[in-house]
Design goal:
Number of strands: 9
Oligomer: single chain
Order of helices and strands: EHEHEHHEHEEEHEHEH
Strand order of the largest sheet: 6-5-4-9-7-8
Low-confidence stretches: none
Distance between the termini: 33 Å
Shape: globular
Helix content: 25-40%
Length: about 240
Amino acid sequence: MALVTGRLGGPEVAARLSGDLGGDARLVVLHRPADLDAAALVTNVVSGALPQVAVTRLPVRSSLLGAAVIGLEAAHIENQDDGTRLARLAGTLGGTTSGAWLSRVTRLSVPSPSFGQHLRSLLPGGPRFLAVFGPDAGVVRAAGEGYAGPPTRQLVIAAPPESTAAQRLRAWYGSDDVIHVPPVVDDARALYGNAGAEFIVVADSLAEAGPSRGACPVCGDVLHTDFCPFCHVHPRLVEETSA
């Protein structure tokens, strides 16, 4: 199972995949809800260029860095089918704290800052703000030791250690258990309206997939939704038609 996130074009994705994937490959396009149209275009172009590749989309309400980090973990789980991996990916992101440190929140819409936060972000200096996704979604000040979640987790920052964003995020997290990685998106302005750096707080293990709804009659993957995300088949409709 291959993953695509960030802001890429369909022809670029197809060209990258054409020499790397086998005949039974699956592709998951991870995207923010606001990028639905662009993600749909990517999936359509890849499906047309590489008909042997099963493609699906997964809208995520996390940072794209978070989607990439958890997605890579899910993709490398052994002895589970892709449908189960995808369900574990979605379930984990729903309960994980992620987001972005931002220089300003003047053009941020999701999550929406208060009027006071909007005004304060116009002033120079200060710790700036975090756009936080997950169980405690909202806009918060990037104050020291502001993270209140489980202490046994690890912070991943898409910025170099010496950057202002990384320094503020480490202070907010209150721990040195931090990993620095390259950004998933080249320009945070495209996602958050202003300059910033994405982050995610990673747990030790992924969420479980949840109850099974049977198997896909085409590929055999265990289903955790009403239809197969890769074959786009609704098992109940197939049973009724054959009956």
